[in-house]
Design goal:
This protein is 34% helix and 17% strand. It has 285 residues and is of the alpha/beta class. The protein has a single domain, classed as Rossmann fold, CATH 3.40.50.
């Protein structure tokens, strides 16, 4: 069954704060999956823990709600078991760059063919607004009452230095562009990072929707095959955020394409041909 507006939506309505950027990100993902005309059984979404990951309740896509920061290894496992699937990771900046930072680095380094959609509002918002890895230096939060000392994590440049083959930045307020970025990320052959900046209307009164409208612009024309140019463009001064695809390299093989035993087919396919599934169910379920 193909993914459509009617089949993708859960009867559970989103519980995010009214005006949260997550609504627009979810809407863009819905549209991307529908326009790609993918089958429901061919898509899996793995969620972490946090505001963004609550999305697990709001759609009907097959998926897994993993532990905090651990969605990436679960997604890699799903991809290796059945590399015919489109595997998407959904989490927040604290979830994927904080608790899950090590998994992010090694997924990029291995060029695992998964798509990582990061809802980046520069806060741990589900736990009421603590500083996250992407919070600007000097910001006062519950965990940094005298101002954050550290410089913010730059996901785009870090992904590039970790050898990610698709690196993009989206903006929750630009539906048309974000939808197209997500589509291209899902269809990319290799590891895809889409860092999506958004407002947090409850715990960030400084960088509100008006601030983002003033400070976000679409990335101009550039050679997305030029790694050094992409790295230079990704310099993060938070004065002018540029949304678009920074880098894409389709020439590098994905991780699963370099494993000899998978050349005969997916693990699931090979296993189904050699194992009596009825007996497995009888013995273990």
């Amino acid at each position: 069954m193909k993914i459509t507006k009617e089949t993708i939506k859960s009867p559970i309505k989103p519980t995010w704060c009214p005006g949260c950027g997550n609504f627009n990100i979810l809407r863009a993902m819905y549209a991307a999956l529908e326009e790609l005309a993918l089958e429901h059984e061919d898509v899996v979404i793995v969620y972490g823990v946090g505001c963004a990951a609550n999305e697990a309740d709001f759609n009907r896509i097959y998926g897994l709600h993993s532990l905090h920061g651990r969605e990436v290894p679960n997604a890699i496992g799903a991809k290796l078991a059945n590399h015919d699937l489109k595997v998407i990771v959904v989490g927040g900046d604290g979830d994927l760059y904080g608790e899950g930072g090590n998994h992010f680095l090694f997924a990029a380094r291995g060029n695992h063919n998964i798509t990582m959609l990061v809802h980046n509002n520069w806060r741990y918002s589900l736990t009421t607004g603590q500083a996250s890895p992407t919070t600007p230096q000097g910001t006062v939060t519950k965990t940094t009452p005298e101002g954050l000392i550290e410089l913010p994590f730059n996901p785009l440049q870090i992904a590039l230095t970790a050898h990610a083959t698709f690196v993009a930045q989206g903006y929750a307020g630009n539906h048309k562009q974000l939808k197209e970025i997500i589509k291209k990320a899902i269809m990319h052959r290799g590891f895809s990072l889409v860092d999506i900046v958004q407002q947090c209307i409850t715990f960030n009164k400084v960088q509100d929707s008006a601030w983002f409208k003033e400070h976000v612009a679409e990335l101009g024309e550039h050679d997305s095959n030029d790694w050094q140019a992409a790295f230079d463009l990704a310099s993060d001064d938070r004065k002018q955020i540029q949304s678009g695809i920074y880098y894409q390299d389709e020439a590098i093989l994905a991780y699963h394409e370099q494993i000899d035993c998978l050349k005969a087919g997916s693990m699931v396919g090979q296993w189904q041909d050699s194992v009596d599934i009825g007996k497995v169910i009888e013995d273990y379920v």
